[in-house]
Amino acid sequence: MTSNGNVMISVTDYLFLGSVEAAYNEPLLCKYGISSLIDMTNTSPGLVPANKKSDCPCACAHQTHFRSKLNIGVDDIEWENLEQYFGEINAFINGARKMGRRVLVFSYMGQSRAPAAVIQHLMQHFKMPYRDAINIVRAKRPKVKLNSGFVKALCRLEKRLGLQETDSALAVREATRRAESPRVSCGSVEELETLAVPPVVRGAWLEC
């Protein structure tokens, strides 16, 4: 099992996003206190290849770990009706959050299904436009690539929630973007301040 790259990122203090490798890494889940899982792989545990599962045992003091799980059986295809699960996904996430639990949302590659679920939660819970939500996720997991059907579903959600940016807001955003070029100071480049986002969980694999 490879130890390179990010298999999991933190999106908020209670919400994590990852691939199937993250869900089958017991030491990783224990290290970050993840006790709730949303499985969007649409793959039974017995069909997950052995090389996707960590064989490192958990070294914490707990002999057993109980984790609640929500299975969402969707495929990564553009005509999949992901919207029908938004309410169920958010109810599970919010229930865990209120109990002080951390949630990992994962799909097989962690590139389309799980990110779409996380993005819609950011939009609904934080009243965040689609563009802002996907930018936050992509800033920490650049490999995210939603299929076109999921993008359309999120745009419909944005419209229903009334979160679309007005023409004037878009103009302000574009003007701000153009103004935010790096400044040279004392021979170094000063990065302008940008929207703060939660830290990335880097190098998540643990050595046995």
Instruction: List how many beta strands DSSP finds.
Output: 7
Q: Looking across the biggest beta sheet, what order are the strands in?
A: 1-2-5-3-4
| Assembly context of the chains | single chain
Residues in helix, %: 25-40%
Radius of gyration: 19 Å
Order of helices and strands: EEHHEEHEHHHHEE
Structural class category: alpha/beta
Strand percent estimate? 5-15%
N- and C-termini, Cα separation: 12 Å
Mean pLDDT: 81
Which sheet architecture does the biggest sheet show?
5 strands, mixed
Shape: globular
Low-pLDDT segments, ≥5 res? 1-5, 181-208
Counted by DSSP, the helix tally is: 7
How do the helices and strands line up, and which of them pair or pack?
Layout (H helix, E strand, L loop, with lengths): L7 E3 L4 E4 L1 H4 L2 H6 L2 E6 L28 E4 L14 H13 L3 E5 L6 H14 L3 H11 L7 H14 L5 H13 L3 E3 L2 E3 L18
Parallel strand pairs: 2-5, 3-4, 3-5
Antiparallel strand pairs: 1-2, 6-7
